[in-house]
# Entry
Amino acid sequence: MKLAKHTGRPSEDRKREVVSRTDAAVLMIGSAVVAAVTTVMSVVGIIGLLTGPATLTLPVDGGTRPSGSLGIGAEAHFSAVEATIPALPGTEAGLLAWAAVLTQVAVLAFLALLFLLAVRLRGAVLFTRGSVWVIGACGAAIAVAGTAGQVLDALARTRLADALGLNPDRTPGSVLFEGTISLVPVVAGIALIFIAGVFQFGGRLQKDTEGLV
# Structure
């Protein structure tokens, strides 16, 4: 008895997509919309800082202060105040504006990474030089811009607190927010750079195995 010869096209020969076209399209559109919205919000915020008035949370050193209104013997102290300033000094306004710009750059770098990876996932072309460059560049942008933005923001708020006389008994510039600098951008950036290295290695393996299967 002869077995019927399978004439259908092998499933291995079919081009399989890592994600569906619909999923990729949704991710691309979502990334673009979020990028546009956050950019508009960032621009509006910067204009508000430069034109005033601006309401900002500033660091203060109030010391430990017992409070009779707290239960179980707890004590409270002030580490920040919210101040409304009619017009920010030029230097501090510039620092805050640049901080907002750098923070938005980090956000856009992350969204651009999502967008471009969605495009490449849609076509199942991940391990390329382009992917390595995109991931590495976005990781570096997130690490540098995200951290620099936080530093400028903290510096500007500290200078404003000193200018308003909120910390008269302390050396100017010595009072900062507790935990004001987050290491998340640095960690995320380093992780993406390592992932870029993995993609580069994957690209080499893909070239070595081309034609073997």
In short: The two ends are 31 Å apart (CA to CA). Confidence is low (pLDDT under 50) at residues 1-16.
